[in-house]
C-alpha cells in the first residue's frame, strides 16, 4: 500500500534557471545540485511544506531523461514518487497483481539515500511511478 506522496519530478532543460525560478520567483527553499551518475541525472530538490519538487537534468550520455527532454524541449512532469514502508513487500504485491517493475526489478539507492523502484507508466494511467522506502 502506498503512503504519502514524497515528490513530483520535473525534467528541465536548464537546471540553474529552473532553480532560480523556484527560489527567487516563487520563494521556495532549493537544495544544491547533486549529481547521481548511477541514475544519469543531476537533481535539485525544492522543499515545500507539504511535498518536494525534484528538478531533474540529464547527466552524461545515455541519461534516462534525455529522451524525455528531446520529446519535451521545455521540460515537464516526469514522475511522481510515493512512500512505502517495505519496498520488497510492495514489489512482490504489485508483481502478483500484474504490474511491471522497470530495470532489473531490484531496488536501487535513490537521491534521498533510500531504496527506490520505478513502475511502468503503461500500468498506471500513463504515469511513471517511483516507490521510495521510508
Can you tell me about this structure?
With 134 residues, this protein is an alpha+beta fold. The protein has a single domain (5-133), classed as Roll (2,3-Dihydroxybiphenyl 1,2-Dioxygenase, domain 1), CATH 3.10.180. The protein is 20% helix and 36% strand. It contains three helices and nine strands; from the N terminus they run E-H-E-E-E-E-H-E-H-E-E-E. A hairpin with a 5-residue loop joins strand 7 and strand 8. The longest helix has 11 residues, at 15-25. The protein is globular, with a radius of gyration of 15 Å.
What are the defining features of this structure?
3 helices, 134 residues, 2,3-Dihydroxybiphenyl 1,2-Dioxygenase, domain 1, alpha+beta, 20% helix
Q: Work out the strand percent.
A: 35-45%
Rg calc: 15 Å
Shape: globular
Oligomer: single chain
Helix content: 10-25%
Which series of helices and strands comes N to C?
A: EHEEEEHEHEEE
Q: What's the architecture in CATH terms?
A: Roll
Enter the CATH topology name. Answer: 2,3-Dihydroxybiphenyl 1,2-Dioxygenase, domain 1
Mean pLDDT: 96
Strands, count = 9
What would CATH call the class?
Alpha Beta
Q: Main beta sheet: strand number and arrangement?
A: 9 strands, mixed
What is the CATH superfamily classification? 2,3-Dihydroxybiphenyl 1,2-Dioxygenase, domain 1
Q: Determine the structural class based on helices, strands and strand pairing.
A: alpha+beta
Number of structural domains: 1
Q: Please, how many helices? A: 3
End-to-end Cα distance: 13 Å
**Low-pLDDT regions:** none
